[in-house]
Design brief:
By secondary structure, the protein is mainly α. Helix 3 packs across helix 4 and helix 5 packs across helix 6. It is rod-shaped, with a radius of gyration of 76 Å.
Length: 254
């Protein structure tokens, strides 16, 4: 407790100094009868005057000693009370700090648990997405392989069909050529033609075509490129036009 607090406490009515009368003061303030006796007796009056004066400072000093003891006791009690309040405050602060730390630990654990669950869900979603992409990629590869296989089979089928058609046309054309060559070889006007013995029909066909070309040129009087074809009408097959030879005919004088 500071000196200012002590001064304030000293101003309290309980700690104010009292005017205590001594035995000598009591004699000075006697009854009226005593006063009358004193007035009557000059000896008594002289006795009173001859007494030493009472020391006021001595009275106050004794009383101050008593109040100092009370003051010290009061200060001690107040200090003890303040110490108790401080200790209680420190205990409350420690408890509050412990509670705050506990709440922080709980919050950190909850946050860590939440982040762990979130990471697990995120990783699971990524794995599922990656697996789905892999499945889609595999399905696309399978579809592309199947498409390539179908295209290859379709192409092979068309090639086989075209090849068979070409073979059929080749055999049909070869048979017609042999038939025409046989008819030409039976003509007596064409038997003495200058042709190799192993291919009798080809020069005869050429000679016949040249003759026909000259007749057409003379009849029309024009010069142009013409494709020589043979037209054969069969009973079982439709009419077909086969290209045999292409030649350039120049204009000759009429």
């Amino acid at each position: 407790m500071s000196a200012n607090n002590i001064d304030v406490d000293m101003q309290h009515p309980e700690f104010q100094q009292e005017d205590i009368q001594t035995s000598h003061d009591a004699d000075l303030f006697g009854d009226d009868e005593d006063d009358e006796d004193d007035d009557k007796g000059p000896g008594n009056f002289m006795d009173v005057l001859s007494q030493p004066p009472t020391s006021i400072s001595g009275k106050h000093h004794i009383q101050e000693v008593d109040y100092s003891q009370v003051l010290r006791q009061t200060v001690y009690e107040q200090q003890e009370h303040i110490s108790n309040i401080i200790e209680e405050t420190e205990v409350i602060c420690r408890e509050a700090q412990d509670h705050i730390e506990e709440q922080q630990c709980l919050a950190e654990e909850e946050h860590e648990h939440h982040m762990h669950d979130f990471n697990k869900r995120w990783e699971k979603a990524l794995r599922e997405q990656e697996q789905e992409k892999q499945e889609i990629h595999t399905w696309q590869e399978q579809q592309q392989a199947l498409l390539r296989k179908n295209v290859a089979e379709e192409l092979a089928w068309h090639k086989a069909k075209i090849s068979a058609k070409k073979d059929q046309e080749h055999f049909a054309r070869h048979g017609r050529q042999q038939h025409v060559a046989t008819e030409i070889s039976t003509d007596p006007t064409q038997r003495n033609a200058q042709q190799p013995p192993h291919m009798p029909q080809k020069p005869q066909l050429k000679t016949l075509c040249l003759k026909m070309t000259k007749k057409i040129r003379k009849a029309r009087g024009t010069t142009r490129k013409m494709h020589l074809v043979s037209v054969v009408e069969d009973a079982d097959e439709p009419m077909e036009i086969h290209q045999e030879r292409s030649s350039t005919i120049e204009q000759e004088p009429q």
